[in-house]
Design goal:
This is DUF317 domain-containing protein. InterPro entries: DUF317_SPDY. By secondary structure, this protein is an alpha+beta fold. It is built from 7 helices and 13 strands. α1 runs parallel beside α2 and α2 runs antiparallel to α5.
């Protein structure tokens, strides 16, 4: 029997075990409210389309996508596309989408929306990921980001529990710093908050992730979670 009620708020790590969560507004809200991107909303199916003021970038959110690929970013010239699945943590997806205005030269709110410029190997090293050829692999070997520059989907982020549905794919010409921003927010050991019911069954019952309560801790919940992480062996 689960120690948590379905609607109880918990902290989860690693982030790639947490699924998307319920804060979709973090992905597209800043584009609309801070940067004035145009938005179209289909109330019937929940689809949302957002376009940059110059029409060069679009972000489409399709919550009922049959294959679970519910967020797509398209840049028209040069052409590239990024696709995120329902299993990708929204914190990492939001880090990608919120950096798009700076890509287009709109530096408003740049202090509040930092964009990493570190190469991926440094991001990996800071988060304890290891390099395997052109890939970077999480400490528990459950998640990997692979770079194959000579194919259309040059970057692919995969998770062992979702072998047929990558967490994210990035086509050639996707700016490296945008991929890096996604990766930095995916790989960081800092826990994310979820309703317990939103966590994948594989995380709840396979013991690959760490789940701790938000309420009831004697100290700051993030600190309590970090202390609980200490001494946990990496599953390999």
């Amino acid at each position: 029997m689960s120690p948590y009620a379905p609607d109880e708020r918990v902290l989860v790590s690693p982030r790639y075990m947490a699924d998307a969560g319920d804060r979709v507004a973090d992905v597209i809200g800043p584009l609309i409210h801070l940067f004035g991107w145009k938005v179209e909303h289909d109330a019937g199916n929940g689809d949302v389309g957002v376009d940059s003021p110059d029409g060069s970038v679009s972000v489409d959110f399709v919550p009922l996508h049959p294959l679970g690929r519910w967020c797509k970013v398209v840049h028209h010239e040069p052409y590239w596309k990024a696709v995120f699945s329902r299993q990708a943590p929204l914190e990492a997806v939001a880090a990608f989408t919120q950096a798009l205005p700076q890509l287009l030269g709109d530096d408003r709110h740049a202090e509040q929306i930092p964009v990493t410029r570190e190469p991926l190997d440094q991001i990996a090293a800071l988060s304890g990921w290891s390099a395997e050829g052109s890939s970077f692999v999480s400490p528990d070997l459950y998640c990997r980001i692979e770079h194959t520059p000579d194919v259309d989907d040059a970057w692919k982020v995969e998770h062992v529990y979702f072998e047929n549905d990558p967490l994210a794919t990035f086509m050639r010409h996707t700016p490296d710093h945008l991929v890096g921003n996604f990766f930095a927010h995916l790989a960081t050991p800092i826990a994310v908050e979820r309703a317990f019911a939103d966590i994948p069954l594989s995380t709840r019952y396979e013991h690959g992730g760490l789940i701790t309560p938000v309420r009831g801790a004697a100290i700051n919940p993030q600190v309590a979670h970090a202390l609980a992480q200490l001494g946990r062996p990496h599953r390999r």
